[in-house]
Amino acid sequence: MCYRSLKHNFDGTYGKVYSGINPDLLFKELGIEPDMEKIDYYILLDELF
Length: 49
Description:
Elements: H1 2-10, H2 25-30, H3 36-47
């Protein structure tokens, strides 16, 4: 959910657009490889609530 929050807060979904912000840097800073299939699943699951 953190990834989705970063993405939507900076891409203009909720108002102001912040250029140069890349939510994928979250994974780089954490030193992990994202599983986008799993991330997409949990984002869709969250939409049900």
